[in-house]
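User: Protein kinase superfamily protein. Structure?
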Amino acid sequence: MAMCRLHNNKVKPSVKVDPNKAVPTIEVPALSLDKLKEKTENFGSKALIGEGSYGRVYFSNLNNGKSVAVKKLDVSTEAESNNEFLTHVAMVSTLKHDNLVELCGYCVEGNTRVLAYEFATMGSLHDILHGRKGVQGAQPGLVLDWMQRVKIAVDAAKGIICTRRDIRSSNVLLFEDLRAKIADVNLSNQAPDMTASLHSTPATPRLSEDKVKQCVDPRLKGEYPPKAVAKLAAVAALCVQYEAEFRPNMIIVVKALQPLLRAPAPAAAAPEMFATVDFGLIEAYK
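Assistant: Predicted structure:
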């Protein structure tokens, strides 16, 4: 499935402002646009570290020395008023969790909207597994061993509990000790539709055919516990069910995955170990 975004040369519309609505209390500091421009060389290419449909991301340091990813939003794609946006920012500013990327500041001046998040020192999970997103010919990063992958999966599941959003590897950011945190928090109460699962379609048929070994990263070179892989595959297969009501909630997923953190040392995988995947595994954790 291909997606594209149309561009035109029209003047960007002014952001709607409703002076009659009270601005909510925001628990992170407001940042000066002039200071942000100064620290990012006027949002220049040297500070640019990422780009997406929402806008561009720049590296910067706050006055307290904290490194942040400065997300400059494209207001031409935003339909909400400043008050609606600030209400969203206020809600996000209250979220404090070990597995959510922390909002460190914000800026709303004229047509400019900026959010500053803690900087992920290890990049995204996508960058490590597949190479930097959007960069042609980018090579994958370090090879994560089995236990590191399980830990990242558990961390991500814990973060998703709070976000109620669809997820992809580019939204899983990695910090020191490979702690995983979820970025771009969405406070919607709706379950994700299966447009998100399109990213997992190559692996899903293999899981349902019990050919789990085909889904394992060959860079692991067989260094993983086959039984644990089969258990994780069972959980993963349930998480990509087409209908939302058939997917386990993330609390159950965390309970199912945590025992894998205590798995025995990896051993060479024998083919017969992948003969079946127990899709009833999740029932034991309900």
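The two ends are 35 Å apart (CA to CA). Residues 146-163 form the longest helix (18 residues).
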